[in-house]
UniProtKB/TrEMBL annotation, chain A:
InterPro entries: 4Fe4S_Fe-S-bd, 4Fe4S_Fe_S_CS, Fe-S_Ferredoxin. The keyword Ligase does not apply. This is Putative formate dehydrogenase. The keyword Ribonucleoprotein does not apply. PROSITE patterns: 4FE4S_FER_1, 4FE4S_FER_2. It comes from Methanoculleus chikugoensis.
Automatic annotation (TrEMBL), chain B:
GO terms for molecular function: 4 iron, 4 sulfur cluster binding; metal ion binding. This is Hydrogenase-3 component G. Pfam families: Oxidored_q6. Belongs to the complex I 20 kDa subunit family. It comes from Methanoculleus chikugoensis. Gene3D superfamilies: 3.40.50.12280. PANTHER family: FORMATE HYDROGENLYASE SUBUNIT 7-RELATED, HYDROGENASE-4 COMPONENT I. Residues 26-137 form the NADH:ubiquinone oxidoreductase-like 20kDa subunit domain. Its cofactor is [4Fe-4S] cluster. SUPFAM superfamilies: HydA/Nqo6-like. Keywords: 4Fe-4S, Iron, Iron-sulfur, Metal-binding. The lineage of its organism: Archaea, Methanobacteriati, Methanobacteriota, Stenosarchaea group, Methanomicrobia. The keyword Metal-binding applies. It comes from the Archaea. The keyword Iron-sulfur applies.
Amino acid sequence: MRSIVYYVREFLRPEWIRKFFFAKTAPLETPSYFKGYPALTGNECTACLSCMMICPAPNAIAVLRTRDGWEPEIYPGHCIRCGLCVEACPEGVLSSGRILDVTRRDGTAFWSWYHLQVDDNLCMRCGNCCVSCPVNREIDPQLAGSGTSASDEVIMRVEGGRVRILHEEKCTGCKTCETQCPNRAIRVARMVEGVQIGEAET
Amino acid sequence: MSILQKIKNTVRSRSIHVSYVDVGSCNGCDIEVLACLAPRYDIEQYGIYVHNNPREADVLLVIGSVTPQWVDKLREIWDKIPEPKVAVAIGNCPISGCVYARRGTLTSPPVEKYIPIAAQVPGCPPRPTEILNAILSVAPLIFKDYEEKQP
């Protein structure tokens, strides 16, 4: 009986009645640190295409030619707002939430290189890849026909009846070898690793 | 405008019934729709009720890129909803297929091929606030003066 009286008195308190009828949750605000769609900061884009290469969603970003230079464009129906393009851009062309501040504070960056792989079961040792490679041509102009080379500085050459990759780090990722290969034996893969600057020194 | 229409407008603005259907996605957008129900966003304070029953729904939230099994069933669900009705695409999947729009995947986005979509909420997943704003802004456009707009 006493508890009923208590509850009736509690529910008749003006403050309780006001709260009960007019309570509202917090307004619909987007917090400042939310990773929205990447926006342009005004820095000049050099069309290195790092953003397009790291983007995990198909057709989400494209670097387009404008009247005076290049400009990345984000397509909202495709972008998943992961912010990798913001992090990957070396010029800081894009910004989203606090990603740029955090990468600057932590000194993180993406380090990328090209990995070449030859499937020996598919490869028929024609040497097309070694001959067509523009970097190989630059280093050893004598390289022709069979793909053999006397130079040790070339990216790859036919050696002992098979393609041997010597200097993977010189690859520029143009994929000419991949398009020239008749058997799809050689594959160029872009590898990306997150690194922290200053970590190697300590 | 008749008094009856005014009453209908008032009632409809505070009583939007929502049904959601996932036609093949990663469930991330489902979780964001559920977050709207939770006290943090509290979808019911705006007069939006989630029943998940197409027969009593006004708004259909379509989530996911359409898989072959859903093609005919999505149309059936859409036909079951009484007029006036509106479909809202939640997330990237119904718009473009998002990460499933690749070769070799069993999806056929966009969802507009199967049912008429009135609003799209891009994002992977969209924020609950974006979903709420979309429902709140598209519902009055369709439901206000619905009978008078009919030919």
